[in-house]
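Local shape tokens:
==================
===
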Amino acid sequence: MTSRLHLPIFPLPDLVLFPHTLLPLHIFEPRYRAMVADCLARDRRLAIAGLRAGYEPDYYGRPPVFAVAGVGRIVQCERLASGRFNLILRGEGRVRIERELPTDTLYRVVEAVELGEEGADRDTVPALLDLVKRTCRHILEAVKRATPEMEATLAEATAPGMLCDQVAAAVIPTPAARQALLEEVDVERRLRRLLEELSSLLKQLKGG
């Protein structure tokens, strides 16, 4: 049975939270300070929802967000004397926002459906995973950041969906591409899309 969640959302431009990654945040707006305080008193979970283009005129209202968001749990929190927060979120999954809920809170709350993964067991996946690892190594060499630790991380990675998310979070610079990778629940297609983005990035780094 599909799991439905009621989650506060933190709408942000050009930011994506992937599963299996950590995201530091500085919370300063009063409505989101209230959101964090409520999250800490509950299950510490919230969704990072990307703002769609043209959000600026309605930023302090309810601007449209992308339907697929990343869900994270607050794993570290520092409350400052000013009332602001420094947080670290750990990405736990993907959700599809079904509807926005009426609420008397300063922040927005949605009903969302958890999204699983599919296609990770196809015969083509191991070869794609190896290509992604190889291209990552070339990128690290091109930017002179190849280290034994990085190599060990790539060599030990066996879960294709997890590696895809971690590489996308660490390497892919384009917000639209990051959002597209977040939205892709089919692991094989996500690997192919990631490989296209990595190959394009490597070409740019090599001056091609």
